[in-house]
Design goal:
The complex is a heterotrimer of chains A (about 290), B (about 325) and C (about 300). Chain A is built from 11 helices and 10 strands. Chain A has about 290 residues and is an alpha/beta fold. Chain A has a domain at about 30-125 and about 190-280: Rossmann fold, CATH 3.40.50.300. Classes of the chains: A alpha/beta (about 290), B mainly alpha (about 325), C mainly alpha (about 300).
Chain lengths: ~290, ~325, ~300
């Protein structure tokens, strides 16, 4: 269960564990999030318990696992979006650069301005493409040239060339894949440090999915990305580190609670996992 | 593709600063809440002010207000304020309206949901909406100018045909002018068809498709399917719809005031002239004063209580049925 | 293929055939009766509108729309201009009061209070308020305003109409807000926007066409109301644009003239009825147009 969490990566990189060539993350990146003992309850139901992990800067971290294991729940803890659910209660600590996000003095609005989110189903506002991307900067009162910000964000999301001549058209006129890239552009327009992505490709076709996966690799130079995905292959392709969650039955109440099983470099999780449950999952032996 | 550089964050970001606009958030919430509370305030004021204005009459009349049918506010031997004739009138007129409107409304709703081809449905909705949009005063005008004068013939025929039957014959007495309980009931029926129809339609739509298809698959004709699968499911909702229609009928003032004849009396004859609670208020308010006026307001309070009870009951029934079946479906 | 002899059913076959006809006839009869219901409903619609249009156009003219109301019922001719002015004034003012208040209240109910106790109480009371008979609204405004200020006025009439419109606007607006997908709210909040900004920048614009449509229906309803105005608005024979003076309205005029035996009064009543119907139908049609054409396609 927890023998493979932060320990290997907290030490200096061991030369013996030589990962694949394009992995600059083998050496120490500073920690952005430090999660300790995180449990989330919805009313009386405990959705996930005792999560410990650290997210490192400029890495793509994937959360994988069967449905109902709490991956999205944990993701939404990073930007206080669980607050929106009636009866949601969080225990433990989620530290962002040392600040506990659930400290009573912390303003959720401030948190969300620094930590962006992309949702499972593309949700562009029924406004123009321009106004969608400009929405965030306008809120934060960004005084600079909005046109520049919009262009920069759309370029970073690999959407600029397709929409530069129709910025004033409705965002709803775009295809599903384009809409999702628009949502990504919208999220990065405020220059957040972190981007949370909750199954961003599950509503898209394979071509659109591939484009977004390429996009993620490009923008991770600047942003830290956490992605929840039920597609293992996607996690293997895209992420630097992977966290595998599963559910355990609670003997007393006959409900299932999510737990973090293993968290390690992606290569290790997929080719040489420490836990049997991880191995079963990634080899497809269990659903 | 621009080359992207990593973002650097200062050591401990200050997440406790109130972001711009958070005070606005609280103010906005307060404003919206205040707007909602206006409803509360107005209802409370309505209750308080009307009851307060009605008290003088209630004190003068005492229990007679609800037990006597003698209404003579300006009698030389002191005001007689018995409201029974008006309550009777309201009850009779509303009952006639329901008897006429409910079958028609259920029929329209069934027609729209089960029988009519898809393209016709929009026109049905339009027709019903137009019926609802016609102001009640226009119905009253038509009632008094067209319906009342021309229907006396029909009343006369019904009196001759059914007037001698035992028990029910008393309902079909002689008709004097066209202004009567019946005429008011007919006009009211037309006016409440839209509300009963639209709620019944909502209820019919929640019948689970599976049940209807199961009935048809077993070889039922469409009518048998409606009778066996649709109507039982919708019965509760239709009761609720009827009650809401009743509430509307009881409170309808202007059309009734114009065609009921304004003669308070408790008689069985449906073709006789009568009076109803809201009608007498609007007809006599102008010339009233003092205790008389207070008595009219007391009638208004009485009417308010009755209609609220009926409406709340109706809505509770409809909601209960909807929840039950939306949850199951 | 069945290798077992089918059970003997000769006698039942005949019965079934007979049942078949009976059932078929019952089905046809029921269908006919139900379809008849629709026709029965159309008859009054055509009768009322048809008669009003025919009789009203007899007197309809530019002079009718711009002339004053004669002081005596038995006089022929004259017009309904003051009533048109009064209807526009009272309904317009009522809309200005009730619509913003109603939209804000609905925002509280659907976006802020949601299912908390206050919101549920307000929702329930708004439903109760839709059931208050319009004449009671008139009595209410009469007692708290007309008696207090000792005069009938256009403003008092508008107040009574506004009380009538408020719960209708709240209900229809709340329904429109409920239709806005929650993902849009989440998207806006995830970008770091406060609730008020999410509501004004995302939710309201998305629901706007439905809200406007509902408001227009409420306006159409208010324009046709008579009972709230009878005790509150007074009577004038020439147009009055002042809010604090007496006024009149198309609905009130129809009511007054309807029971008069004189041909002149009846004619004017029908002319006013035609004007009112045109106004109300126009708003109803406009409301449907706004709802369907200007709705945001998702």
């Amino acid at each position: 269960m927890s023998d493979s969490t932060p320990a290997p990566t907290a030490l200096a990189p061991s030369p013996a564990a030589a990962p694949a060539v394009d992995a600059p993350v083998a050496h120490e990146q500073p920690t952005v999030f430090d999660v300790q003992g995180l449990s989330v309850h919805y009313g009386a139901f405990r959705a996930v318990r005792d999560v410990d992990l650290q997210i490192r800067r400029n890495e793509i971290t994937a959360f994988i696992g069967p449905s109902g294991c709490g991956k999205s729940t944990v993701l939404r803890c990073f930007n206080r979006m669980n607050d929106l659910i009636e009866g949601a209660r969080v225990e433990g600590q989620v530290r962002y650069h040392g600040v506990d996000l659930y400290d009573p003095a912390v303003q959720p609005v401030e948190v969300r301005r620094r930590i962006g989110m992309v949702f499972q189903k593309p949700n562009p506002f029924p406004k123009s493409i321009y106004d969608n991307v400009a929405y965030g900067p306008r809120i934060t009162g960004q005084k600079g040239n909005l046109d520049e910000v919009v262009e920069r964000s759309l370029r970073a999301a690999a959407l600029w060339d397709e929409v530069k001549d129709r910025l004033k058209r409705s965002a709803l006129s775009l295809s599903g894949g384009q809409q999702q890239r628009l949502c990504i552009a919208r999220a990065i327009a405020t220059d957040p440090e972190v981007l949370l992505m909750d199954e961003p490709c599950s509503a898209l076709d394979p071509i659109a999915t591939a484009r977004i996966e390429d996009l993620m690799q490009e923008i991770k130079q600047r942003y830290t990305i956490i992605i929840v995905t039920h597609n293992m292959q996607q996690a293997a392709r895209v992420s630097d580190r992977t966290a595998f969650f599963t559910t355990e039955v609670n003997p007393s109440s006959d409900t299932r609670t999510g737990v973090l099983v293993e968290y390690d470099l992606t290569d290790r999780v997929f080719s040489n996992p420490s836990d049997e449950r991880t191995e079963n999952y990634v080899t497809g032996r269990f659903g | 593709m621009t080359t992207l550089t990593p973002i650097t964050i200062a050591e401990r970001p200050d997440l406790t600063i109130r972001a711009r606009g958070s005070r606005l958030d609280a103010a906005f919430r307060g404003l919206a809440l205040a707007a909602g509370l206006v409803v509360l305030a107005v209802l409370a004021l309505i209750a308080y002010s009307t009851v307060d204005a009605a008290l003088p009459a209630l004190r003068a009349a005492g229990l007679e207000f609800v037990t006597s049918d003698r209404w003579a506010p300006n009698a030389p031997d002191g005001p007689h304020l018995g409201s029974l004739a008006f309550v009777y009138g309201t009850a009779v007129v509303s009952s006639i309206a329901l008897v006429l409107a409910v079958p028609v409304s259920v029929g329209i709703a069934l027609f729209a949901t089960e029988i009519a081809p898809r393209r016709l449905r929009r026109w049905i909705t339009t027709a019903v909406d137009l019926l609802a949009a016609i102001p009640s005063v226009v119905y009253g005008l038509w009632g008094i100018a067209v319906l009342a004068p021309n229907i006396t013939g029909v009343y006369g025929w019904m009196h001759r045909t059914f007037g001698d039957l035992p028990v029910v014959g008393a309902l079909f007495g002689p008709a004097s002018s066209g202004r009567s309980f019946m005429t008011a009931g007919i006009v009211l029926a037309i006016m409440i068809v839209p509300i009963i129809t639209s709620i019944t339609r909502e209820v019919l739509v929640t019948v689970p498709r599976g049940e209807k298809e199961a009935a048809l698959a077993l070889g039922a004709t469409r009518w048998e399917m409606i009778r066996g699968a649709v109507l039982p499911h919708s019965f509760g909702g239709m009761v609720g719809a009827t009650m809401l229609g009743l509430g509307r009928a009881m409170g309808e003032t202007i059309a009734v005031a114009l065609v009921i004849g304004s003669r308070p009396q408790i008689v069985a004859n449906l073709f006789a002239t009568g009076d109803a609670m809201p009608a007498v208020i609007v007809n006599q308010f102008g010339e009233s004063s003092g205790t008389f006026r207070s008595a009219l307001i007391a009638l208004g309070v009485f009417l308010l209580v009755l209609t609220i009870v009926v409406n709340v009951l109706g809505r509770v029934i409809v909601n209960r049925v909807q929840v039950r079946f939306r949850g199951a479906a | 293929m069945a290798l077992v002899d089918p059970p003997v059913r000769e006698p039942l076959d005949l019965t079934r055939a007979r049942l078949s006809t009976r059932r078929r006839l019952a089905d046809r009869a029921a269908t006919a009766v139900i379809s008849l219901a629709f026709v029965v409903a159309l008859v009054p619609l055509v009768a009322v509108v048809g008669y009003v249009v025919t009789r009203g156009s007899g007197i309809m003219s530019w002079e009718f729309l711009t002339s004053d109301i004669p002081r005596q019922y038995r006089v022929d001719g004259g017009g309904m201009y003051p009533a048109i002015v009064g209807t526009l004034l009272t309904t317009g003012l009522a809309a200005l009061m009730a619509i913003p208040l109603g939209v804000l209240g609905a925002i509280y109910l659907n976006e802020l209070g949601r299912q908390n106790r206050t919101a549920r109480a307000i929702r329930f009371l708004a439903d109760v308020m839709t059931g208050v008979p319009s004449i009671v609204m008139g009595l209410f405004v009469y007692t708290i305003w007309v008696l207090r200020f000792e005069r009938q006025s256009a403003f008092a009439g508008a107040l009574a109409l506004a009380c009538l419109m408020l719960p209708i606007v709240i209900r229809s607006t709340e329904e429109m807000l409920r239709l806005v997908p929650d993902e849009l709210r989440q998207g806006s909040l995830a970008l770091g926007s406060h609730r008020w900004r999410t509501i004004t920048s995302v939710v309201l614009p998305t629901a706007l066409s439905g809200i406007i449509s509902g408001a227009m229906l409420a306006i159409a309803r208010a324009a046709g109301e008579t009972a709230p105005l009878v005790f509150t608005v007074g009577l004038v024979y020439s147009p009055s644009w002042s809010l604090s003076d007496s006024s009149t309205a198309l609905s009130a005029q129809i009511f007054r003239n309807a029971s008069q035996p004189f041909a002149g009064a009846q004619d004017r009543a029908f002319g006013a009825a035609l004007t009112l119907i045109v106004l109300v139908f126009a708003f109803t049609a406009l409301s449907r147009f706004v709802a369907s054409r200007l709705a945001i396609k998702s």
